Every structure is written in structure tokens, then in C-alpha cells.
Amino acid sequence: MSETESKMVEKEPVEIDATDGSKTASNAAEGDTTETDSETESKPQTAEIDRSPARVSQLLAIIAASVAFGTSAFFGTVGSVGGALGLALVALGVVRGSRRAVTIGSFSLLVGVLDGGVAAAPAELLIPGTMATVLAWDFGEQAINVGEQLGREADTQTLEIMHAAASTVIAISAGGVGYAMYLLGSGGQPMTALVFLLIAALALTSALRA
User: Fold this and answer.
1) Tell me, what's the pLDDT at 107?
2) Cβ contacts of residue 133 below 8 Å, gap of 6+?
3) Alpha helical stretches, state H, the chain
4) Which residues are CB-neighbours of 18 under 8 A, at least 6 positions away?
5) DSSP secondary-structure letter at 45?
6) CB atoms within 10 A of CB 120
7) What is the percent of the chain where pLDDT is above 70?
8) What is the mean pLDDT of the chain?
9) Checking phi first, is residue 202 left (phi over 0); if not, alpha (psi -120 to 50) or beta?
10) Of 85, 105, 101, nearest to 93 (Cα)?
11) What is the DSSP track for 91-145?
12) For the segment 56-107, what is each residue's pLDDT rounded down to a tens digit?
């Protein structure tokens, strides 16, 4: 071989097959993507729990507030305004989950009922109105508590109904005691009835708090 041919052989470029390397890199990238997708699919997706007030107690609170408003709406301007404001606040509180609105609304309902006592409304309306006022507060608190602890979509109807039944029994018992005290000691005077009404409200509130 001549010297010229030897130099030509030495200078011939060496071709590198890059196809296999590209395929390998592509396969590796696809493998990583598949693993990432599978990991994403395997991760559990946590659903956000709705902490709004529970429906049953929510409805019961509005019904009780409506009853309280109805017992005082026709006995004086203060009773009508206080009852209407109380009903609106209780309804707002149990819809938006505001304990403050439920408490202020219940107090406003009680003011309306007590104004009915000053205006010589019959005790047969005032005592049920007081019972309904405290029950509206109790049901509203229960609706908010159940919603915060268990969630609005949880199956809590039995729990709420049992609580409502127990609270209603306590309310009727306390109301009966208050009415008996009124019959025994009032002498038919509106202000005396007002005092006994307050005693019944405090006793009922303490019983429900226990």
C-alpha cells in the first residue's frame, strides 16, 4: 500500500449510529412519564368536606324561631320588631354557620316575648314562646356543631332528631313547671308573669346546657 493510500484510510471519518441512542433516550423518557402518571393516579384525592350547618337542625331552628315570633308578634311594637329581627338573625345564623347571629337572634326573640308579657299577653302564649326561643337557640347551635364536626353531607338525621326530641321534652317539662308556678303565685298580674317567664327561661337554658 502506498503512502498516499495509507493517509486516506487514516482520514476516513468514523460514522456513529445515533439512532439507537435516541431510541434509548426516548424510551427512558417515556418510562419516566408513565411512572409519574401512575404515581399521580395512585395518590388518593382528598375531597373537601362541607362544614355548613346540618340540614335537619337548621330547619328545626327556623321553625322554632317562627313559633317564638308568632307568639309575640301581635302584642306591642317592640315584640313585633324584636321577633322579626330575631327570626331573621336565627335564620341567617343557621344558614351561614354564625353562632353570634343565632345567639343575638335568640335574645331578640326573647325580648319580643318578654315585651308581650309587659303588654299583658296571656301566659299560655308567653311560656310556649319562651320555650320556642330557647329551642331555636339550641337547634341552631346543634346545626352548627354537627356541621363542623361531621360535615353537612354526613348521615346525621337520626342524631339530630334524637337531640331535638330530648331538647323538646326538657322544654315542655320546664315550661310546665313555669306555668304551674305562674298559676300558683301570679295573681293574674302581668309583671309577675314576666318574672316567672324569666325563671322558666333560665331553668330551660341551664337544662339544655347540661
Assistant:
1) 92
2) 64, 65, 68, 86, 106, 109, 110, 113, 201
3) 3-11, 19-42, 55-72, 77-96, 99-118, 123-150, 157-185, 190-209
4) none
5) P
6) 13
7) 67
8) 76
9) alpha
10) 101
11) HHHHHHT-HHHHHHHHHHHHHHHHHHHHTT--HHHHHHHHHHHHHHHHHHHHHHH
12) 999 999 999 999 998 877 777 788 888 999 999 999 999 999 999 999 999 9
Instruction: Tell whether the torsion through CA atoms of 113, 115, 118 and 122 is positive or negative.
Output: negative
Q: Cell numbers at residue 125, please? A: 302564649
Closest CA to 146 of 137, 156, 158: 156
- Nearest Cα to Cα of residue 164 among 189, 142, 182: 142
Torsion of CA 141, 113, 192, 134, to 10 degrees: -10
Helix, strand or coil, per DSSP, at residue 18: coil
Q: Are the C-beta atoms of residues 70 and 130 closer than 8 Å to each other?
A: no
Distance from chain centroid for Cα 64: 17
Closest CA to 137 of 162, 160, 109, 157: 109
Residues 13-23 pLDDT 10s: 444 444 454 44
d(CA 210, CA 156): 22
Q: Which three cell numbers stand for residue 159?
A: 342524631
Of 56, 62, 63, 84, the residue nearest 72 (C-alpha): 84
Spatial CB neighbours of 169, under 8 Å, sequence gap ≥ 6: none
Report the alpha-carbon angle 97-67-93, nearest 5.
10
How many C-beta atoms surround the C-beta of residue 171 within 10 A? 23
Q: Which residue has the cell 322554632?
A: 64
Question: What sign results for the dihedral spanned by CA atoms 103, 105, 109, 115?
Answer: positive
